[in-house]
Amino acid sequence: MQVKLKVRRYDPEAGDGPQNARYSTYEIDVPEHATILDSLIQVRDFEDASLALRCSCRSAICGSCSMRINGRARLACKTKTADMAKQSEEITVEPMGNMPVVKDLVADMDSFWSKVRQIRPWLQPVGPKPEREYLATNAAMMDLARTMNCIYCGACVSDCTVLEVDKSFIAPAALAKAYRFVGDPRDGMTVERLREYSQHSVSGTAHAATCASKCARRASRPWIASWSCVRPP
Amino acid sequence: MRAAIEAARDGADVAIITKLHPMRSHSGAAQGGINAALGDEDSWETHAFDTVKGSDYLGDQDAIEVLASEAPGDIIELERMGTTFNRGKDGKIAQRPFGGAGFPRTCYVGDITGQAILHVVYEQILKLGVKVYEEYFCTSLIVDDGAVRGAVALPMVTGNLVAVQAKAVVMATGGLGRVYQPTSNAIACTGDGMAIAYRAGAPLQDMEFMQFHPTTLKDSGVLMTEGARGEGGYLLNKDGERFMAKYAPNKLELASRDVVSRAEQTEIDEGRGVDGCVLLDVRHLGEKLINERLWQIRELAIDLANADMVHEPVKVRPGAHYSMGGIKTDADGASPMPGLYAAGECANVSVHGANRLGGNSLLETIVFGRRAGAAAARYAHDTPDGKALSESVLQADQQRIQELAQPPGDGASGERPATLRREMGEMMREKVGIFRTREALEEALETVNGLKRRYDGLRLQHAGRVFNTDLIAMLELGFMLDVAHTMVAGALARQESRGAHTRRDFPDRDDDNWMKHTLAYHTPEGPRLDYAPVTVTRWQPEVRTY
User: Fold this and answer.
1) Would the N or C end of chain B have less CB density within 10 A of its end CB?
2) Strand B516-521 with B528-533, pairing
3) Residue B390 pLDDT > 90, yes or no?
């Protein structure tokens, strides 16, 4: 299958600035089952060794390869090249939004991770430790597992319309982490956490929750929609 | 990370160097679960015996006893850290059946167990404030007078080599699956830690034992969890027959992985496959259970194989999955080199022997990660401060990178590393796969030597410093060729069939001559092999059937 990839380039050593957009176009022949990640790796391996991207697991679990494909954030490893080619003859590939770029498709995720750290993301039980495991219902653990399902790929943050106007917004991924503790029956700091998190959240329903539709993990989507832009109860 | 947590708790000054972000680690891809004898009717001795039998009697039984007896405590600790294990009706941790196990003892979080544990362990790293050097690509160990004194790494954002001084180094770098093509392993699984330790003088042990997972997707090699069979899924051939009844009449689909993979390959080779695959069928489990316990693989099969497992079987085949071999260590993670420790897939303790049981690899990372962290902290505490490192420790790696950046000239071929990587991957699949013969392995040895010669002629096509993945690919290929060499040499020498190593020309296990570990030492010409005895405590070798 013959496809055309138009890839946004940025190389600080080549004197590129953030403003002057530069694109490279690659015409390659890929197998029918190829993903965008397979296609980009083929470019990097055999067409242009200077193309930089992050990737590792190829199975939507490590969260490395988020990028904007045909204008919206997706995981390259679970996006079929054939599907994108149906959308437009020339497939556009760009780094994630709402983050600075290190090189080409590699985004600087420092602010993303610092927001995750900001919510104090570790379990804080109070009271004496049980002799063995904490007892809990399967339903409670399954509810949390849906949130734990988040792979911190950054797709929701890339396309977050709130962040575009308010850089301090803690944004959906960190809030997903926050819920994972607030909803955990084993955590003893629920009230303190809610008080703190509500200062970082966006109140009201004016926002489109664009992040939810961008979430790379289908199982987590309903949750992202209900939490990211609405002040916790 | 588990080692870092333990060392930090013990008061050591710890940092993690990783070529990825810690949350991108391939442990996150482990799906099905983690074993521990928690049930009242189960016992750690049964877990240990299952592991010994699974290892085809090549595992060291003293190490296996440590693994099985300390597992329950480690699982409870993971739960208290916040892991969201599935629960039974009594609120306790639930357990599912897994291959080669005599009891349902695999704890799980749906089919994202590795991810759930990885994230919780990372939360503890943040809580303890352990320094993490993200996207620092380790190039070599610093060795002084036979002892390890730190590591050299390439920060990918700057491209300027740095020396990290340390009294002790714990390798926790995972597997080498990328030596094969296809593989269930992540692109990052290139055997770096094994190769770096090997070059520094540490022996690699039992490298000829490579696990082929019975259920990987056809094109991509992506994993479909053993949990699918643990929950009751079937393996079918093209006639719709549950063929495992012929190969393992008692355990059927839940025989150990080497047995199931050989059976599948036999079905495929004898013309009873479907497009070079067999079928994994979970339809009878129902949509509710699939969504509750197997949601990730359902999503993966839809995205990568155009098959919704709720409505149709998915094509799977055996795929290169896990290296039983690795850096030789004792039960405290200590290698024979002072100051060098290892834990997880890159290590060989040896608890998996010739074949690992599903659910024992996450367990190994936690039990021996903890033990290696504690031992490294003790060693660091007892070792006096050495002299400061000189700049010269960077010299060899700096020179190597400069050579690679030279324009193609004398002896340079202009070949791409990806070309060699593909040839290596295909050669390893064809000649060092499930079934092996002397002829194929001799050809493999010749191919590896040829690839190594061609590797010396490669040059970078991109010489930039910032995030130069051309350079990373080049260095990773060098590591992979070194570990592939030890795998081929070990397989050629071992004239028997044991666990995952099946020689058509030597179809039987030979305890008299081969119940011993293979050790591979680095020399400029290639691996020098040596052998070491297996530790037997209470289980004498028996005929192994499932």
Assistant:
1) C
2) antiparallel
3) no
| Whether A10 contacts chain B with CB within 8 A | no
- Amino acid of residue B342: A
- Name the residue type at position B317: R
Q: How many residues appear in chain A?
A: 233
CB contact under 8 A, B126 and A121: yes
Spatial contact of B80 and A124, defined as CB atoms under 8 Å apart: no
CA dihedral B180, B182, B186, B188 (to 10 degrees): 40
DSSP secondary structure string, B256-290?
A: -HHHHHHHHHHHHHTT-SBTTBEEEE-GGG-HHHH
C-beta of residue A173 within 8 angstroms of C-beta of residue A116: yes
| Residue from the list B127, B186, B467 with its beta carbon closest to the beta carbon of A122 | B127
* Residue B26 annotated to the active site: no
**Which is nearest to B163 in space by CA: B151, B146, B149?**
B151
Give the contacts of B453 (CB within 8 A, at least 6 positions apart): none
pTM: 0.95
Counting as low any pLDDT under 70, the low residues of chain A are 18, 200-209, 219-233
CA-based nearest residue to B383, from B420, B341, B353: B341
- The question of whether B317 is a catalytic residue gets the answer no
Residues 6+ apart with CB under 8 A from B258: B56, B211, B212, B354, B355, B499, B500, B502
Q: Write down the catalytic residue from B47, B229, B371, B509.
A: B229
User: How many angstroms separate the first and last alpha carbons of chain A?
Assistant: 51
CB atoms within 10 A of CB B41: 7
Write down the catalytic residue from B213, B459, B503, B544: B213
Residues 201-230 of A with CB under 8 A from B: 217-219
ipTM of model: 0.94
| Position with higher pLDDT, A228 vs B239 | B239
d(CA B463, CA B406): 9
Chain A residues in contact with B223 (beta carbon < 8 A): 59
